[in-house]
Each structure stands twice: as C-alpha cells, then as structure tokens.
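Worked example 4.2. Below are the chains of a multi-component assembly; read each line carefully before continuing.
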Amino acid sequence: MKRQRQRLDTGARIDRSQRLGFRFNGKSYEGFAGDTLASALLANGVRLVGRSFKFHRPRGIYSAGMEEPNALVQLGKGAASEPNLRATQVELFDGLEAASVNCWPSVKFDVWALNDRVSSMLPAGFYYKTFMWPKSFWHRYEKVIRKGAGLGIAPQAPDHNIYDKRHQHCDVLVVGGGPAGISAALAAGRAGARVILVDEQAELGGALLGNGERIEARSGVDWTLGARAELDDMAEVRVLTRTTAFGYYDQNYVLMVERVNDHLGAPAGTLRQRLWKIRAAQVVLATGAIERPMVFANNDRPGVMLAGAAQTYINRYGAKPGNRAALYVNNDCAYRAALDLVEAGIRVEAVIDVRANPTGEAVAAVRERGIDVLAHHAVGGTLGSKRLRGIEVLALNDKGDGFAGDIRRLRCDLLCLSGGWNPTVHLFSQSGGKLDFDEKQACFVPGEARQAVSAAGAANGVFALQGCLAGGTAAGREAAQKAGFEEPGAPAALPFSPPEADPLNPVWRLPPVSKGEMRFVDLHNDVTVSDIELAAREGYGAVEHLKRYTTTGMGPDQGRTGNMHALAILADIKGVSIPEVGTTTFRPPYAPVPYGVMAGRDVGVLTDPVRMTAIHGWHERSGAVFDDVGHWKRPWYYPRPGENMAAAVRRECVAARDGVALLDASTLGKIDIHGPDAAEFLNRIYTNSWSKLAVGRCRYGLMLGEDGMVMDDGVTTRLGETHYFMTTTTGGAARVMAWMEDWLQCEWPDLKVFLTSVSEQWATLSLSGPNARRLLSELAEGVDLSVQAFPHMSVRDGRVAGIDARIFRVSFTGELGYEVSVATSYGLALWQAFLRVGENYDLTPIGTEALHVLRAEKGYIAVGHDTDGTVTPGDLGMDWIVSTKKDFLGRRSLARADCVRPDRKHFVGLLPEARVPEGAQIVDEPRRRPPMKMIGHVTSCYDSATLGRPIALAMVAGGRERMGETVTIPLTMEGRVVKAEIVSPVFYDAQGERLNV
Amino acid sequence: MLQIPCPHCGPRDEVEFSCGGEAHIARPKESDALSDAEWADYLFMRANPKGVLAERWCHTLGCRRWFNVERDTVSHEILRVYPMGEPRGGGSGA
Amino acid sequence: MSDPSLHQSPLATLHLGGRESEAAPDALVQLAERRAVGKLNLRADPANTALMQALETVLGYALPLAPNRTNGAGERGALWLGPDEWLVTVLSGQENALLEALSQAAAGHHAALSNVSDARIVLSLSGPRAREVLEKGCSLDLHPRAFQTGHCAQTRLARAAILLHQTDDAPAYDIHVAWSFAVYLWVWLEDAAAEYGLAVGDGE
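Applying the procedure described above to all three chains together yields the following structure tokens:
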C-alpha cells in the first residue's frame, strides 16, 4: 500500500486516525474517514481517473461535487455493481472497490483512444451522417459503435438492497445546508415552524466546508457545528444530510433521496436509501452555485480543475491536487483559492486573468504574496497528455477577443479555472419559476416564482458570505411567516450590500492558437467549441436543437459546468443576447436516482395487492389454478391429480349440468340502494323498466354508457319498499358504483336515493345444477324452497348451516341455481358446510372457466368479454330488454345513425370445426393470405362438454341475417384455416325449461 | 402529484381523486329534439384550453363527493374549488 | 344470529396464532386485529334536524358533523365518512339490533342503513413509532398539529384504501381496511414496522 503522498499533515474535515483501505482500477490505496473517493485518489497522487465518452481522452478529477463530468466510476464488483457514480460524491469506506468506466482494457491503455487521433473526422453529427448509407446497414454498425460508447456496465443481478419511502409534511422546506440554508432553517425553526433542512453532503456547511471563510470570529466550520446543535435542539426541525432533493413538482411536492447507508458500503440487510416525499407549505432553495470553467485548447488534461474544487480538496480533505499550480480566471473569487494553495505548500506560478486591470482586495493580497498576476492574458493551450505538464499563456489583443504576442510556457501540474458561478436554479426552474439573466455576473438567477418558493444565497445570485447569511435569514423568516409562524422579538434583518469587486469579464470563447486543437465545452460528451459553431452553421440555432445535435449537456453530469458556455457561444454566433437564446428545460431528476428507491418496498409479495375472498385459503389448499380478475384471484379450475385443464373443466361442466356445482361468486359487485326514488333511479340507469318489480323479486338489468354502448349487467333485487340490492360484474363493481354516484350527485341531486357499496360485506356462494335444491334443503332453515314458494328470480331470507343468509334464486349457468350470501366472515364455514353435505350429491367446486363454458352454451353475454365498449343492446340481439316507454342513460345514442346501420356486427353463435382463439378474425374468403376483409371476430370459444363439440360466440357483420352460412377463421400464425357455421348464440335449452324446475 | 383541496376533507394527494373532465355540461332534457350532431356535441366534444379549465373531480378514496375545480392547465395551479351546481367564474351562485 | 364459532378473520390464512405469544420486549410498534367491532353504514341528511335528533336518541350521542371527526370510540361511536354518511360502530353481535332501532327511529325519513360489519376489518396500530409506520405509505399529514386523537380520514395506505382513526395520543390508530385487502395490508404493515420492532397482539 502506497503512502498518501499528497496528503497534508494537519487540518481539514478528515479523521486521520481512521484509515480506510480501498481499491481503484485494481490497485490498493489508503484514505481516511471523511474522504470521498476523489479526495482519497488525489491524496494518493492518482491523477488519471477516466476516459472521455467519445474520444476516450485521458481525464482527471475536475470538481469536488455532483457537477463532476470526468471521474465516473463503477462501484463494487460483479453482477450487482453500480455504474456511473461520481468519485467526487462517493464517500470512502473500508473495502471500497471501484473502477473507471468507458475504457478498455484499462484506463492507461485504451484501444478506443484511437478516436482521439482521428477526432477531426468525428465532428458533431458524424455518426448520424456517416452510418446512414446504406440505411439498412445501421444495425450492423450500431453494435460496434455502441461498444465504443457506453457508460459503465448495467448491473445484471437483482438489486438486493432494501429501499424505503416516507411521506412528510412541513411548513418550510429548506434545500441546501450551506450558510444561506442554515440561516433560513434557523430563522424558520426559531419562529416555531415545522422545518426540514436537507443537504446532499455528509455534513452541513456547504461552501463553508471548503472555502475556509470565517463568520463572527469563528471558522465557518465551527459556526456550522453550532448551528447544527441549535437545529437539533428544536423539536420541529428535521435535518437530513446525504439527501438530494431531485424533483420539484406541483403544489410544492418535492421528492428527495436519502443515502442512508451508502457511505458504509450499504451492508446487506440494512436500509440503503429512502425516498422522501415532501409536501411543504413553503420552500426555500439555498442550493448554492456551481463554478464555471474557462474554455481553451486541450482544456481537459488531468490536472485541470475548477478553482473552488482545488480549494475544497485542500481545506476540507487535506489533499493537495497538485504541487505546482497556475490559475486562469475572469473574476476576483478565485484569488482566495490562490492564497489557500500557497498556504498548503503548493507553488503558484501565476494567476492568469483575462481582465485588463483587476484591483480587488483579494487580487492585492495575491500580489502581496509575490504571485505573478498576468492581467489581460489568457491560456491558449496545455502541455501533457495523461497529466498536465504545463500551459501556454498569451497576452490578449486590445479588444480582448484574440491573442497578441508570443506564447509563454509555464510549467505546472495543476491549473485551476474560475469563470464565474452559475446559481443552481434547477429546482427553481422545475417548480415553474422564471429565470432572469444577471448581466453583471453573467448568469441566470431565479426570477418570478410560480409556487410558494424563494431562493437565497448563491442560488439567488448572491455569492458573498454576508449576503448568504442575511438572505437566508430573511428567506427563512418570510417563509415561516407565510406559513403562519413568527418569532417574537426577532432582531430586524440587517441590510446587506455586496462588497465592491471588479466585475467579472466573461470571455466565452477565444480563437484556437493553432488550428484543429479541441476546446471542450462539455467535457463529458466531448463537445467542443467547433461542434457548436458547426451546429449553428448547419441550422441548429435553437438551443434545444443545439443540445440534441451536439449532445452538449446530455451526459450524466447534464452539462453543469459547460452549459453556460454552450449558450453564450451560440448567442455570440447568432449575434443575440444570452437570455434571447434561453436555456434548455430543467427536468427532474436533478441527479440520477436508482430504480430501487423508486420501487421502495413494492417488491416481491408487496408488488401489488392480492384481493382474497373468504374462501381463498381453501381454494389455494385445494390446488385451484387462479385467474386474475382485477386484483382478485378467482379459481379458474380445480385440477385433480393427473387432470389437465380441458379434463378438469369438462368434469366441472358435467357436474353442473347433471349433478350440482359450487362456485365462489363473492367477487361480484354489490350495492345497497335505498330511498323513495330508488325505482325511478333504476329506470334511468338500466335500459328496462323497474317500476313494477315486486318486493322479493329479482330482475336482470343492462346498463349503457351515454354513448349507448353496453357498460355492465347484473341482477337487481327489490328487498323492501324503498330498498334495492344491485349486483354488478366483478370487474365493473367500482366503476358502476362511481358512475351511479356521479349521476346522483351531479345530474339528479333531486332524487332521494342513497347508495352504499356492500361488495365486501357478503360472501356469495353459488349452487347450480339439478340437485341444487335437494342439497340446499338439507342445510336451509326457515325457507320454503319449493318451486311454488320460491320461484326463479326471487329472494328469501333464512338460515343456512346455522348462518344468517340471503338466498337468491338466480342462475348464470342455465340450471336450477341458488346464490347464497352470508356475512363474509362466515363464507368459509358455509362453503365447508356445503362440501360436507355435498358428499352425498357429488358436489363439485367449479372455477370461472367452467362457468364461462356453461353460460356460453346458454348464449349469456359476459360483459367485457363478448362486449368491448362498441356494442349496443341491439347488436347483442337484446332489444327485448330496452324500454321504449321511458328515458334512460344511453337511449338517445341508440338512435344515432351509426347505431342503426344494418351492417353492424351482431352477436351470434358459431359452430367451428375446431377450437379457435378468442379474438380470432372472421372472413368470408377462404384465401389464406392477408389482406382480406374482416367481417367480425370471435369473442368466446370453448369445448362444450354438453354438446360434445367446440362452440363459439362472435360478433359478425349482419350476422343475424346470415344464419346457417359458413365463414372462415384464418389462423395465419398457426398455418391453419377453420370453417364455422353461423348459428343462434343459444346452444342449449333455448326454452329455459331447466331453470323453472 | 397535484394536491387538491377537497371542499370537505381538505388538501389531499391527487391519487385519492378521479377526474370527471370538463364541468358544467348539463344533460340535455329533450334529447330527442336534438340532431345527431348536437347530441354528439354533448357526448364527445370537450374544451381543451391552454389556461383555466373548469373540471369535475370526485374524492373517490375519501368522502366520495363530486365538486368543481378551476385549474390552470399550464401551471396546474388550482384556482378555485366550488360545489356542484354552482356556476363557474366566481361568485357564490346558486 | 349466526353461530359466532363459525366466524373467521381474513387474517386466519396468515396463521398468526403462534406469533401472538412471541415476546417482543423492545417492540416500538404493536399491531393487532380488533375483532369485536360491529359496523353500520348510515346515510342521512344532516339538515334534517328531526331525523338527527331521532338518531341521537337511539345512539346516545350526536353524529359528528365536522368532516373527518369522530364521536365516541372503539365499539361505540360514529366516524364521519361524508357530509351525509357515517360509520356507526357497535359491539359485535349487536349490529342487527342497533340497525333495527335506528331504522325505526328513521321511519318516515329518507335515510339508509347497511350492516357493513364484515366489509372491513379493523387493525389496531399503536406504539411510539406507529406514526412513522403509517408515513411510509400514507400521504396524509399525521403530525399532531394536523391529525389528533378523535380525527379520522379515508385515505390510502400503501395500495389499499383505508379509514384511519386516531384513538390515542400515544399514538394509537384504528385502520379500517376492506376484508379482501386485509392480508395484503397486514403483510405490508409487518414489513414497514419491522425496523422499529413489532409485537403482534392477540386481538380482542
């Protein structure tokens, strides 16, 4: 293991007593607790950490935060490793193992680096233009090209980490725990508001952790620790670190991901990450700012770094990013970094400043230390390849838009860049807020807000520390006040005026010193100044087009360091202002979010609820094969040992026709309808008339949408003078209830009707078959089951097997049938009682498949099976149920021209030669090859045990006029053609004699 | 995820509600007097403005009551919530 | 009345019987089914003061008129479900008698009563971390400043529709959930509560 040769001996927020071993690209290193992978690599003198996306150029650590474009790593080994993490954000833990992405076979020798040699042949749009000839060959090229691109390796194994979610409400959400955010949280917390303060870092402090600034005679870090202690003492304040707010949605809904255990390597069995769903009355965004680089030729060598990042590595991590440095700046801010570099023992060769005459306080301090300040100069290029060896400096011409004079070479292994700051406005923009352009600081700042949100500190374009503290306090106080909280006796906020400083001079682009040298704007996606110029020349002058054509800003770093340059260069070429060019749209997520945390605990058995009837456990134990109906699992059939589906269904059907069958019908929708206007209400809802239904009698009803199409059906029973009981299909239960409430509340509030869903109150067991009465009579008490006393389509209350029951004499099989409803908790007891007594009758439990065969033999429709929302009662041949004497929902539509066409599809029976799949198309022509005219389709098809042959139900154009004709069902995929005869849909007991026994 | 102020239950997440589309579309009483085109207009044609739209929402998972909402379809801001039967455009109405 | 010995909870398929006696001394969450709660769904117009008075006479307490509020608790109380809808709770076994008495009181008025004792079951969730468990799957603001003892709400917990009722400051909650969703929600609650330590109660 190597010594940490670039590590400072004292200071910084690391714990030198806690040594952590880690491996990077196969080599072992050591770092300290408090390190990130990036700071530990720098401390170990590792400069080359990755290869660029397109040209595979050597790259080094560029930043100290989430804006990192270069240092992307694959974390962990094997099938569950994670790609594309920023080394600048990966907290070091003992045993960490990481590797560079996008290089093969190694980061030092990368075969795809050949792309760099021929880079002049690979401008923006190269792949689009080149590999389109001939078009059909793209899929061959693509495989090879994709191998050369790619970002790490997607994990192959299931993610076994544990993720969770949590909802939380607050009065004030403060995003960002730097000086502004802390001040805002303190102010809001002191006022008594419920506050959530989040920061993506391991500890609060933000820029204070890295820039060495002092507050009220204390170090910024000490001030932060004091504030944290005060926040922790407030009962209604919650501080979340290692938490990134990544999405800002409507009505102040903010999503955040908390990395609970990643810094420990996410040990198995522990919670790795938690998704927080925050609903905040007020939001304060104190999300800081991201430093901009300077753009020049070969500005991507390992050793080129943002100035603030270099400062952070020294002050926060005690890691020297180089030994001999230069700075290239356009503003005063980075001069403080120069002083920190000197303090850390780094030799500073010069500060190169594009401004003509910088005179600020920090500039003077730098000059005092004897450091060369090369004003009105620029960096024209760099030396070195896998690491920076030096820079080329030139004087600027009088206009400042080109070079004058000779190249001067400076030896250095670190070049710190500062091109000003971009406020992190992503969340503000996601919230719908408008952005204004701050000309003086050349950056976009939050403008008019659309939601209850404000910005403070650097995120608001205020970069001076005193301004962050004052602005944060004011924003926190105001947010709390708007949420109804005020701190009594809070001192008035001090007015803040920014310190005098020389204005920044944004020099967005300078011409190349020698032709063909690449000036990178987007380091991750290898987009250069020339690419942007080319795009503008070729007509991609709109910013969204520019982005897609050049891919600038489309990498995992989303162009956080380079986007502003891209906009500014485009504006420059077009001769318009930057705000006229505008920004691309900021969309969530602000930072990548693992799929695992989106899924949370909705995995395995919790993926989706399974609704269970009272009999569910028995069905399972008895080997039922289940059919999914919504969230329900309904028994499909109950195979006996050695039986296949066909055999089981045949046996179940025979039992219903010849003996007695038992079906769990509990999933049917059930609605109590109460009120003096209940009959009138049913008249309007159903197509048939309900005025004369006697108490104790049942009636079948058909329900249409206002478009005249069949929506649902079921049996409704009159239980009392003003009390009806409606059943719906299983799938339609919730929809029908909502539909009826809608009409009652919104259109017919005058009707005195109350609806109550009682679907779950009743377990409904259906007995069906010639022996149903005899079986039921053994268990029923207090009910005369005789045909005279209890006719078909009527109801009786009684007791069955010691259980209070409501018995309906109805049938969906065409056989003598009873539906016995009992309170759900007694459903299993009743089922078992039936089975016990049923032994004498060979009672057979049947599933939904047998039920479907039986009802199809009778020509009974199954709504949603034989109908699909385009079928009228007339199409079904059910005009008999459509009243002509009253209005009802859908009636007017039945008279629409399209609903009375003679060539509409009619519901008919088919006698096919063989069983065909449901949905199969029907044609007249026996030709095998499409295209041909389709005249209908099969809606249901079964092997009928009763008829001993396949039967089908179908919708066929003009079908009722074509009885006896033969049509063709071509099954092209299976290579066969089935002929079928059109017949009546009622295949069995057309007179209904078996019902009235 | 919108937050919708149910007039009875207060602000709740959008998942608890269902949207009934454009509000204030009364069912024609004398539908037989309407041409097919007029009936189709009632059935199918709905406003789709960029801006303020009056919609019906039902607090399906809560109190199951329907109510009207004025919502800006661009900003998703909910401008007003008012009972069924009250006319659009402010005022206490009926 | 049905033979109570034939009654079965939806949770029977989970075979919790053995679990109830497990010692969980550090558990910060308790979960149990409350089996003794009979329930009636009542619809009535609150503006009909004569009807309200008649119902109150039978119940012995007034129906809560403020949204999402309750009157009474446990086996004797009423929970607000809507502006003209309540869930009336009664000791299990007495629901038919109460339904009959209320129906008589409402005679001549427009009102609706349905026995829904089996439509939902009641889970009792309590303990110092009970609120955190709910916050994992419920978007309601359950902070004591917003939701207190005596408050109720129909909402969503995980993927199930529930009626939530805070019954104690401790806190303790009653969760009414549809019979068919009971197993799903129980399993979800067990999973969500695991990190705080869960004691499975033996119901009442």
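Take a moment to check your reading of the output against the notes. Chain B touches chain C at residues 8-10, 12-13, 15-16, 61-65 (CB under 8 Å). The CA atoms of residues 51 and 75 of chain B lie 8 Å apart.
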